[in-house]
Batch of 3 targets.
Target 1
Amino acid sequence: MASNRANPNISLNEQVALSPSGKRVPSALSMMVDSMTSMVEKAKIDLENVDQRARADLENIDQRARKDIALLDQRAREDIQKIDQKARKDIASLDKRAREDHDLLRKSREARGVSS
């Protein structure tokens, strides 16, 4: 015959957790699952925060890198312009000296009576 007596191990204020199959789950196990669920949620939030901070840091690094590249590009253009101006002056000076040397040779040949 079935007994309708209350289980003495369960107090009136204690909640009995049931699994999806309807079996009784000890409250310690239920508390552990709740705790683990809470820790997983907190870890997920922490990971999202870290990801957000990492994205912000990468954006800042990218902006600084772009500024640095622009500055280097500007300096390189200025350096190239200075080198180009110096090269043009050097070429002009060499051209002038070559013309002077050519004139001296021509005059020297004319003085000796030698034709080219």
Target 2
Amino acid sequence: MIHRFVSAVLKRWLPAFLVAALAVSTAGLASADSFFRHLRVDSLISDGIALYHSGDYRRSLEKLDAALSLNADNVEARYDRGLDLYALSRYNEAAAEFRTCVRQQSDFIPALFNLGVTEIALNHLDAAKTIFLQIISEHPSSVRAHFDMGLSKILSGQPEQAAKEFAVAELLHPQYVQAHYDRALAEYRTGNLVGADQETGEALRLNSSYAKAYFLRGAIRLRQGNSSGAKTQFESAAKLATDPVLKSLCTQILAQIGA
């Protein structure tokens, strides 16, 4: 009697038990698949980052594309893909990636910052200024945000405002050579030759091999009517320049100045 009762119970409950066991097994397989998928995505992103830092942007893109094919919502892969596209001068595509990152993660400041930089490359200067204004309002001590706001403004034909932004960048980071140089350029464009000369001096104090600073100082000397002083500065620029265009320009100006 007891055996018949046990048999009946097993017949009644065994199918349900098997279904439950199968469900647990399937869930385990799905969980394992998800785990290995995440592991693969992380590995591809890591490879992509390494290739980016080695300068192999095309192969880096391939790795990141593979990662996104496994997880299209991975914001890190999309951000790194944007960096690759920017490095390859594919600015419209880079901007699209950074915008997607910001939509996915509104507080992703590096993506927002790089979107601003890309907008500058695309000559979308008003858009760039809007982005950097947003970053500065949230992070007023961001040296690069002030610097790139200044860059956006000088390219927009606003040298006075650009000089102010570069000045803030200098206050936040006194050793920032590029900020001193670009402030000098902005001051030069406003006609403030004393300020421009002072800032080129700061740039050269921090980097005595800065060819563009010597070139700018030569231009300042010319506007001051000091041909001899200009000649000395252009000669230094020509000697230190690695850019063939800058070196050629120095040679042409020196030929016009004469002995």
Target 3
Amino acid sequence: MNIALDHLGFLGSDIGRMVDTFSKLGFQLTGPAPLDPGTGTDVTAQQSAHVIFPGRYIELTAAPDCPADHHLAPFIGLSPGIRLLVLGCADADQERRRIRATGLEPSPVHEASRQLAYGDGAMARFRWFGLQRECLPGTLTGWVQHLTPGSVFDPRVMRHPNSVTGIDAVLLRRARLPEGLAATDGGTAARQDENLPEDPFIGGLELAAESLERCRAVLTNNQVAFSDLGNELQITAGDALGAELRIRQRA
């Protein structure tokens, strides 16, 4: 199955440590900064940093003191890893109606925002909704409509020292996803790998790089352990905030 991936979220308890870990992996990060989810809960509870690629990104987020009604509260205390899967859409209201027709239970659409500390320094704005009940164990699943994509996806923050250019696939122990999550056109592959642990549900990522040589050098210089399979570099979940990373040369 392919999914219309917008971003994946690593959830942890210490945003500073999370940023440091991904910086050592060779990524340029934006933030951290507070994210107002637009749900009426504490607007400073969630701190997020981002690894930006063309049209999608990885989010590092922490909300250790969030109130009980915060959308991340059900996932606080779970083991580290990818706990947010957010798919893209052109119209959040229309997509919500489509999702509801598949039998899933979407929340209301929320208006979210965060102040960007790069590019034109704009206020990034989004419309998003999640599912009232989990359809993927231990994972918040949602959809987002970008209202300011030109500001968020600034090419100047996509130049990563490790030369990684994007996400080719998400890796799951069990590949069966609800049909409502399938991309209607194109999208990112969701692949099964039975060697991954049961939890988190999304246990790994396949990433594309312009230069494996450059990536090797960055990881070595930053003393990050990795396995070199020649055409693929592998970083264990323990060294990458709970998700195995597999980096391959872009063809």
